[in-house]
C-alpha cells in the first residue's frame, strides 16, 4: 500500500517507519523533507499554506500535526488550515484513502476524576482545545468516514520534561494527597502502533481514545520517578498553590477491543524504558 504521513514529526516519523517495516511505500510531508529518514520518501511542503499532491493510488493518509507553540493562531494554522489543505489534496487526487487524524484528549474539559470514553461530550474549555474541536468539526464535514484518534499525553524518547523536573527538584506533589489529579499518558511507540493498527482495522469506529491502561495520580508518577532516579521525593506544594490541568480517567477499552494492546501498559514500564535509553526521538 501507499501511505502518506502528513506531519512527519516525532510521532509521524515513528508511524511511517512502522508502515515501511511492514512493506508499505511511505511518503512523508513536512516543511523540511531532509529531516525525514529513509526508507520514508520525504516531500517538502508547508501544509499550513500549501495543498499537497496526493498520489491517486494512496490507500491511507495519516494526519499527525504538531504545532510549534501554544499560540492560538499557530494552532489554527497548523490544525485547521493544515487539515483543510490535506483534505483538498485528497479531493483533487481522485483517491479514496482511509484517513486517520490525530487529535488530543485535551478537548475533554473534566476536572472531577470521572471516567472519559468516546461517548463523553467534548467541550474544549481552553483556546487551544477549542481550535482542536474546530479542526475535528472540519474533518467530520469534509470526510465523515475518517477515523479520529484522540491521544492522551505523549511521552517517550526525548520527551523527558517530567523526568527533568523530578531530577532537578522543581517538581511538586499536590498540596494534599487527595488533591493529586489523575493523569493520562501514552508512550509514543504505542501511539504509532495504534495508528498503524487502525489503518487496516475492519469497519473502524469514527473515534478512538489512545491512552495506556492506567490513569495514574500525578503524585504516584512523581514518586515512582524519584525512586527510579534515586533522588528525594518532591516536596508538597504550598497549601495555597493552584492546581493546573484537569482531572479525568481515560478509557482505552474501545481501542483495545480492536486487538490493539500497548507495549507499555502503564507509566512504570514506559518510563523505565525511557530511563534505560530505549528508542530515539525523531527530528
Summarize the entry for a quick read.
It is built from 8 helices and 13 strands. It has 283 residues and is an alpha/beta fold.
Q: Could you explain how this protein is built, in words?
A:
With 283 residues, the chain is of the alpha/beta class. The strands form four sheets. A seven-stranded parallel sheet has the order 3-2-1-4-5-7-11, sandwiched between helices. Helix 2 runs parallel beside helix 3 and helix 4 packs across helix 6.
Question: What are the SSEs and their pairings?
Answer:
Blueprint lengths: L1 E5 L3 H12 L3 E6 L10 E4 L13 E6 L8 H22 L4 E7 L9 E3 L10 H16 L4 E5 L1 E3 L5 H8 L13 E2 L1 E3 H12 L7 E4 L5 E2 H12 L18 E3 L2 H4 L10 H9 L8
Parallel strand pairs: 1-2, 1-4, 2-3, 4-5, 5-7, 6-13, 7-11, 8-10
Antiparallel strand pairs: 9-12
Helix pairs in contact: 1-5, 2-3, 4-6, 6-8
List keywords for this structure.
8 helices, 7-stranded parallel beta sheet, alpha/beta, 283 residues, single chain, two-stranded parallel ribbon
Structural class: alpha/beta
Approximately how much helix is present in the residues? 25-40%
How big is the Rg?
19 Å
Uncertain parts: none
Number of helices: 8
Through-space gap between termini:
25 Å
Beta-strand percentage range: 15-25%
Q: Name the helix and strand elements from N-terminus to C-terminus, one letter apiece.
A: EHEEEHEEHEEHEEHEEHEHH
**Order of strands in the sheet with most strands:** 3-2-1-4-5-7-11
Shape: globular
Could you tell me the mean pLDDT? 96
User: How many strand elements?
Assistant: 13
What about the largest sheet? Answer: 7 strands, parallel
Amino acid at each position: 500500500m501507499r501511505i502518506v504521513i502528513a506531519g512527519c514529526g516525532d510521532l509521524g516519523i515513528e508511524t511511517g517507519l512502522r508502515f515501511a517495516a511492514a512493506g508499505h511505500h511511505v511518503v512523508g510531508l513536512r516543511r523540511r523533507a531532509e529531516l525525514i529518514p529513509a526508507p520514508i520518501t520525504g516531500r517538502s511542503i508547508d501544509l499550513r499554506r500549501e495543498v499537497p499532491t496526493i498520489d491517486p493510488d494512496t490507500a491511507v493518509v495519516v494526519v499527525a500535526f504538531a504545532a510549534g507553540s501554544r499560540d492560538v493562531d499557530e494552532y489554527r494554522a497548523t490544525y485547521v488550515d493544515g487539515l483543510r489543505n490535506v483534505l483538498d489534496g485528497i479531493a483533487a487526487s481522485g483517491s479514496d484513502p482511509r484517513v486517520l487524524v490525530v487529535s488530543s484528549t485535551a478537548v475533554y474539559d473534566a476536572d472531577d476524576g470521572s471516567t472519559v470514553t468516546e461517548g463523553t461530550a467534548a467541550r474544549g474549555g481552553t483556546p487551544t482545545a477549542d481550535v482542536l474541536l474546530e479542526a475535528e468539526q472540519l474533518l467530520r464535514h469534509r470526510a465523515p468516514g475518517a477515523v479520529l484518534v484522540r491521544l492522551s499525553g505523549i511521552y517517550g524518547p526525548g520527551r523527558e520534561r517530567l523526568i527533568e523536573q523530578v531530577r532537578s527538584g522543581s517538581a511538586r506533589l499536590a498540596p494534599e494527597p487527595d488533591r493529586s489529579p489523575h493523569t493520562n499518558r501514552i508512550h509514543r511507540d504505542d501511539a504509532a502502533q495504534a495508528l498503524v493498527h487502525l489503518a487496516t482495522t475492519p469497519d473502524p469506529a469514527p473515534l478512538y481514545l489512545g491512552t495506556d491502561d492506567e490513569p495514574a495520580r500525578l503524585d504516584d508518577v512523581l514518586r515512582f520517578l524519584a525512586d527510579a532516579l534515586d533522588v528525594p521525593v518532591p516536596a508538597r506544594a504550598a497549601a495555597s498553590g493552584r492546581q493546573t490541568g484537569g482531572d479525568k480517567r481515560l478509557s482505552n477499552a474501545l481501542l483495545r477491543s480492536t486487538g490493539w494492546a500497548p507495549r507499555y501498559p502503564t507509566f512504570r514500564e514506559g518510563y523505565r524504558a525511557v530511563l534505560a535509553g530505549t528508542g530515539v526521538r525523531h527530528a
